[in-house]
Specification:
The structure holds two protein chains of two kinds. Chain A contains two helices and 22 strands. By secondary structure, chain A is α+β, with helices and mostly antiparallel strands. The longest helix of chain A is centred in the C-terminal third of the chain and has 35 residues. Chain A is elongated and about 100 Å long. In chain B, β9 and β10 form a beta hairpin. In chain B, about 40% of the residues are buried. Classes of the chains: A alpha+beta, B alpha+beta.
Chain lengths: ~260, ~250
Amino acid sequence: MNGALFVAKTGLSAQDTALRVVSNNLANLSTDGFKRDRAVFEDLVYQVTRQPGAQSAEGTELPSGLQLGTGVRTAGTVKQFTQGTLNVTDQNLDIAVEGRGFFQIALPNGETAYTRSGRFQLSSSGQIVTSQGDAVEPQITVPADATSVSIGTDGSVSVTQGGSTVATQIGQMTLAGFTNPSGLQAMGGNLYQETVSSGAPTTGNPDSAEFGRTIQGALENSNVNSVEELVNMISTQRAFEMNSKVISTADEMLSFITQQL
Amino acid sequence: MDKLLYLSMTGATQTMLAQTAHANNLANVNTTGFKSDLAQARAMPVIGAGYQSRVYAMTERPATDLSSSVNNPTGRDLDVAVQGSGWIAVQATDGGEAYTRAGELQVDAAGQLRTGSGLPVLGDGGPIQLPPSSKIEIGSDGTVTVRVQGSQARELAVVDRIKLVNPDPQSLSKGRDGLFRVNGGAAAAPDPLVQLQAGYIETSNVNAVSELTAMIDLSRRFEMNIKMMKNAEENATAAAKIMQDIG
């Protein structure tokens, strides 16, 4: 059978994956703390149909052989942890991280997840939780009679209570950092999980050079660049069309034999 | 049996092989740092007793198009593109040194600098190992600078330098894994003149228009070969008919 058919098939499926990545990025254009993905392609193995340097006759060598590529494959997707722009919301429990740190979230199953989305709320017991209701680690409980909550760039959480004018510190937020954040596993819901590839997290207070600062009253926008994604979509679509053209050409060639002979 | 039939058959088969080479180029039209393969046909005369009337076609890959392609900005610190000619040295799966232009680098959990497909990037003395760091910068000469975790912003440490080489293009060939190697297996010497551009990746150098044109050209050639097979069949039918009429 014509090898071009199967090679073009790998091209079509790779472009299909690329389009899926682009559409997911575009769908999350307005998701707080979303980090865009990029599909990484690499060429598949080459088949040596004829070895270069083989002898064509006694004493004569072929100067170049025939090595045919077998197409393309998606090596993986890479999340790009570049900083998103900050959107000032003036909500006192909206916190953005300016730097590379992640908030730690305690999941109901006891595991810890990591997020860049700092849209926090208070639970009925006054605990700082995500919009899903999962508690932020380390757990901080705001007293019921607190009149204002302020979170410093160093992650310290302080409140003023009742008629008092003096703020008292009630907790300290910490951030986690990873050697290879691209290796984190995205769980959906803006959450990431530690993997072997990401390495173990290191935690520390914000405002250090390592993790970045916490900024109260702001949220981190998605780092998807809509123009770039649309351009990627165009190039993906055209590449898809070219590969389907290869399939139709290969099909015409095969049908020509069956009709003529 | 008429030799024409066999000659046309090999012509058609070899055209199909060339078609596969072009299909592979088109499949990799969006692969970072991909270099397109060239395909050509060679005439192989059949040498033997008697009149040398037969010349078979043979498709081969004489070389790879090594021309540079456009560098696309990505803004990611670990994306590097080679400016002009030059190669990034990586350790292939067989342990040997190979060269690539695909600079979508990443750091694994153990702190090793790897390519997008997971191959270790080579430095001055073997694979580049990075300490746990909060920021990694790659300079235009391949120098990898990191800010070690817990240190101040002004305390930057130079860890290693990516091995950049620029061997004679004539001595390079593409291996089965798509990586380039110097013919004969020797490692190329580092070249200080090769420049990297951080925050960019090099696009595939496949020229989609010329590939599509080549596909059309090959498909017509294929049809001509099939037509010749058809002619051979008609000749044989006509000859058989004459023989029948005589009989």
